[in-house]
Amino acid sequence: MLELVYKRKRSVFHDASPFLKMSWLFSILMISVIFEHPVILFVIFLSSLIMALVSKIFSDWAGVMKLVVFFVPFVILFNLLVNANGETVLWQLPFRIPIFGILNITLEELAFSLTMCIRIAAILGAFAVLNLTTDPDDLLIAVTKLRLPYKSVVVTSLSTKFVPVLFADLKNIQEAQRSRGVDFSKGKLLDRIKKYGSIFFPLLSKSLDRSVQIAEAMETRGFGRYERRSFYKDTKISASDIPLIAVSILPLIISLYMVSQGIGVFKFYQRIDSPIKSSSEAYYILAILLVQVFLFPLLKIKEMMAYD
Fold first, then answer.
1. Total domain count, the chain
2. Are residues 181 and 50 in the same domain?
3. Please, are residues 43 and 292 in contact by the beta-carbon 8 Å criterion?
4. Structural domain for 152, as ranges
5. d(CA 209, CA 134)
6. What is the pLDDT of residue 99?
7. Is residue 9 part of a domain?
8. What's the confidence (pLDDT) of residue 278?
């Protein structure tokens, strides 16, 4: 069962400022969008992996990352159907498919599909680290401090909180149905669909009921009455957070410079490029990795100073 629930722990990233976490996430998202280079995307994915290890959330993080495994065949199949490019043919279907014709599986198509999966893994991994290490209330306060409309921020925060609650309700309803003798692993496809229908409607009813309760609770507390709101707990950027935020944004700055200089451009078609085309490209990729890794000892130093 997928769980993206924040659990209070003591680690360098749990104790970090939510502003630092948002800047780190923003840097990873922008780099993942800017580049299609498989090595750079893999380096960004490694950043999330190392952060999960350092934050002691690897088991929960790995459970979320299993979703990427299910995306791989669909991405490859979709790319195979809509993109018939590439010179290095690995395998050819022995029959013709209507509309699409005879499909060739090329090295370039396969490399592009796997690279897109790495991009999905990098983005999903970064979001998973943020959700598992950040109190939603702290994140809500930090985002509101950025002058964003707090009504939209609250709605977004509630939607993210609903995801683990929805999975918990799904598990409880499924166990209740099993206790009544419903076996979801047996029967024909149509029978299984009917069995899962016995889960869907109670889940929908419970979700709607919870939404009404939250709306009534927010209305009784005067939500939206005033344009500005106060907070029970305040979150500010401290002086020690500024250099950490700068380090977290530095990989994005390096990436933007690489794009302006034409470094890091990777072509899949018609023939796939070499993973590393020049020594300067290798140095810049290594710099992005080193800056990402350099953030961890800085967080540890800040944690030791806070404890002292």
1. 2
2. no
3. yes
4. 135-233
5. 27
6. 61
7. no
8. 85
